[in-house]
Amino acid sequence: MRRYIVATHARLSEGILSALDMIVGRQKPISSYCAYVEDHVFFKDELEKEIAGYPNTDEILIFTDLYGGSVNNELLPLIKYPNVYMISGVN
Question: Model-level pTM greater than 0.85?
Answer without folding.
Answer: yes
